[in-house]
Amino acid sequence: MKIKRIKSCFACWSPPLGKGPTDGEDINISSRFGPIPNEIDDTVHLSYVEAIDFCIEENGQIHRTDKYEHMQRKENPQLIVRRGDEFQLRIALKQMYDKDRDVMTFLFKCRDRRVPNYSHGTLIGVPLTEKPQNAYSWSVVLEEVTKNSITVKVRPAPTCIVGVWDLEIDIQTIERHTFQSPNPIYIIYNPWCINDEVYMESEEWKDESVLNSDGLIWRGSPNYPTLWKYAQFERDILDCALYLITNIGGLSGHLRSDLVAVTRALSAAVNVNDDSGVVFGNWSNDYSGGKAPSYWTGSKDILQEYYKTKKPVRYGQCWVFAGVLTSVCRALGLPSRVITNFASAHDSNGSITVDYLVDKTGKIIDEYDSIWNFHVWSEIWMKRADLGEAYDGWQVIDATPQEPSNGMFRCGPASVAACKQGDITKPYDLPFLFSEVNADRVSIV
Predict the structure, then answer these.
(1) What is the CATH number of the domain that holds 51?
(2) Which GO-annotated molecular functions does the record name (predicted)?
(3) Reduced to 3 states, what is the DSSP secondary structure of residue 121?
């Protein structure tokens, strides 16, 4: 057989040097490659995959995500899984899968990116294999083959971007087929995965700081805590958290797999000072146009209203900022808790002292800094690869707009271990945190 043009699948072959054909010359390749089709069919066919069963109930129990409203919908439930651990998919086919004939590739694309990109980690191609890849890579492993279906185990990388992913399945048989899943997959942080940077060994703390939807916040007095409903599994809360990272925080691509960048973005996005964040702070006694901070007893109404209107909710003070930020973190799978610091110093100039100007009689003339009767912030549990394992563990993040950090009203993540050791040289905002708990009071005459 003679052809004028060689398809790209033969591009690896070239004739001996000096003996190549001139332009337009016929060449005979049948003897080298055997019979070949007159035309290679690269047409995309849509008929091979019929449907995907996301195994909502089984995956929800294994990944401890069954409480999310997305997973409990009677119509069109949506899968939420934790990165670094396997989840199961059953794929219905119109013909029996043949591993020797069919080449199947799973494409995962970040939904909020118009053009997903391999280099940014927003487009992932994973071949179907019989054995998993290493623990730090994506993998799709064939578990079972039946007459008209296959079961696979998918494991997202423990460092992958947290967010909403679309799934496309490409199959190359004699023809090429593609199937676009109508439903997305939500991937969140995983404190149960030892390779995730938020891994936490204590089961008790994971139950409390990830799965517990209610908690106590102390304000005003150490003797009278108040109930706060975090509502991290309720409608729109997870979607609002992802909106804050991408739309308000402006993180895209690989930055969304950088937990330091994510937490700094969240601490800024929960207040309104630099952007259209969630809560409008008010420390006056005039709450017209909104509700007094003491009105709120949970995050649900605040976050749902904000996600619906995309306008700041009025009004909040420190415990409201902390409660909302903790809800957002728990929705994303981050271990988080609320901390109250009584007699909390506010150092406005980075001196790590609370400075007062007094006259010769000791009367205060001016207060450069102040001591609040209490202040409330959030803490998350994470590794600090940028600092070293000595500073892993609880990190302070504070959404209350007190002082700017690198030009924005945000605070943290600041290592609690570093603060206790007085190592205030470590990022982020450790001098400010240290002064809150351990500032010296200085009187300037």
Answers:
(1) 2.60.40.10
(2) protein-glutamine gamma-glutamyltransferase activity
(3) coil
Residue tagged active-site, from 347, 375, 392, 429:
375
Whether residues 141 and 211 share a domain: the answer is no
Residues 6 or more apart whose Cβ sits within 8 Å of residue 278: 244, 269, 270, 271, 272, 302, 303, 306, 312, 313, 324
Domain extent, residue 55, equals: 44-188
Is residue 389 located within the same domain as residue 261?
yes
Cα–Cα distances in Å, from 358 out to 251, 355, 370, 436, 440?
A: 47, 10, 14, 22, 16
398 in active site: yes
The most distant pair of C-alpha atoms in the chain lies apart, rounded to whole Å, by 109
Average pLDDT, the chain: 88
Q: 364 Cβ partners below 8 Å, 6+ apart?
A: 356, 357, 358
* DSSP β-ladder status, 139-146 and 123-129: parallel
Number of domains in the chain: 2
Same domain for 249 and 128?
no
* Highest mean pLDDT out of 11-15, 40-44, 135-139: 135-139
pTM: 0.87
Q: Which of 63, 398, 423, 440 is catalytic?
A: 398
177 part of the active site: no
CA 243/CA 259 separation, integer angstroms: 16
Q: Are 157 and 189 in contact (CB under 8 A)?
A: no
H/E stretch holding 203 reads: helix 203-206
- Give the residues across from 423 on adjacent strands: none
Same domain membership, residue 268 and residue 139: no
Predicted confidence (pLDDT) per residue in 59-115, tens digit = 999 999 999 999 999 999 999 999 999 999 999 999 999 989 999 999 999 998 778
Q: What is the dihedral of CA 281, 286, 288, 293, to 10 degrees?
A: 40
Q: Output phi, psi for 161, to 5 deg.
A: -65, 135
d(CA 113, CA 319): 34
